[in-house]
Design brief:
Blueprint (H helix, E strand, L loop, with lengths): L1 H8 L6 H10 L9 E12 L2 E13 L4 E5 L6 H8 L7 E6 L2 E2 L5 H11 E5 L10 H11 L5 H13 L15 H13 L5 E5 L7 H14 L6 E6 L2 H4 L4 E6 L2 E4 L3
Parallel strand pairs: 3-8, 3-9, 6-7, 7-8
Antiparallel strand pairs: 1-2, 1-4, 4-5, 9-10
Helix pairs in contact: 5-6, 5-7, 6-7, 7-8
The protein binds adenosine-5'-diphosphate and magnesium ion.
The site of magnesium ion has 3 residues, from helix 3.
């Protein structure tokens, strides 16, 4: 309820002028302006020393693209996702998502924006252990004031899609890793976000289960017209994407395929 009420009060800043100039600047003639990262920089201070993780790169993505970012452990993959989702703030640069300047929102606005427009999938699933499958999946509906007949129908359809239609009442510790990740995929999609972020979603699964999860993820995101940003150290998982990047020395470099 609260989410809905706050949303009505908010006027997401569609700063059209800046957005268009950024889009042109990045040479987005082919519509690569759904998600734009512009001169992004992020680092951390450790022991009084500043350590750069993401170093001034600019890139644009088209609506509906599935993008994979390959990088070693510690290369900055999670940092990148945390900036895109607004969990963390960039030190410099701008992020535009579907015309909204995320870097211009305050903490509260970013939280609400994320809750409504982004879905997450994690390596360790991050399900809430005290909630059953149905309660885990419908949590984003509750948070967004969408727990109505339509939302519930969507949750039920997604449960069938991920093959867990008969496990509604199971708790996370009673289902396998692959099943937990299926729950987590349904949870990421239940509020119908355009953008899904996946942080090493197959990193904790065996090869066959990982492949099944990637097939499912691909079907429910790209094939459904959604954007997926997948970060991974698995070339097999990255091979599913429309575009593959490597994150190395703080730079995002597109791979020729
Ligand atoms: N909150 C933080 N404070 C200090 N250093 C951090 C923090 N988060 C990440 N780092 C450092 O930033 C680098 C990138 O981390 P991360 O984005 O988690 O990499 P990856 O997800 O690719 O393994 C690592 O060197 C990590 O130690
Ligand atoms: Mg990580």
């Amino acid at each position: 309820m609260q989410g809905k009420r706050l949303d009505k009060q908010m006027n997401w800043s569609k700063s059209t002028d800046i957005y268009e100039s950024i889009s042109q600047q990045a040479g987005q003639v082919d519509g690569r302006n759904f998600l734009v990262l512009e001169n992004l920089r992020k680092g951390y201070e450790e022991g009084g020393k500043y350590h750069t993780v993401l170093h001034d790169f600019s890139i644009g993505f088209r609506r509906g693209e599935f993008v994979a970012v390959l990088g070693r452990s510690g290369s900055g993959k999670t940092t990148l996702l945390n900036l895109i989702s607004g969990i963390d703030r960039a030190d410099a640069g701008e992020i535009y998502l579907n015309g909204t300047r995320l870097t211009g929102l305050d903490d509260m606005q970013r939280t609400l924006y994320r809750r409504q427009n982004i879905g997450f999938i994690f390596q360790f699933f991050n399900l809430i252990p005290t909630l059953n499958v149905w309660e885990n999946i419908t949590l984003p509906l509750e948070l967004n004031g969408m727990f109505d007949a339509e939302g519930k129908a969507r949750a039920r359809a997604l449960l069938e899609e991920v093959g867990l239609g008969n496990r509604l009442e199971a708790f996370p510790d009673r289902i396998s890793g692959g099943e937990q990740q299926r729950v987590s995929i349904a949870r990421a999609l239940v509020h119908n976000p355009q953008l899904v972020l996946a942080d090493e979603p197959t990193g904790n699964l065996d090869e066959d289960t990982g492949r099944a999860i990637m097939d499912l993820l691909d079907r429910l995101t790209r094939q459904a017209g959604k954007n997926l940003v997948l970060v991974t150290h698995s070339p097999e998982a990255a091979a599913y994407a429309d575009r593959v990047f490597t994150l190395h020395d703080g730079q995002l470099i597109e791979k020729d395929r």
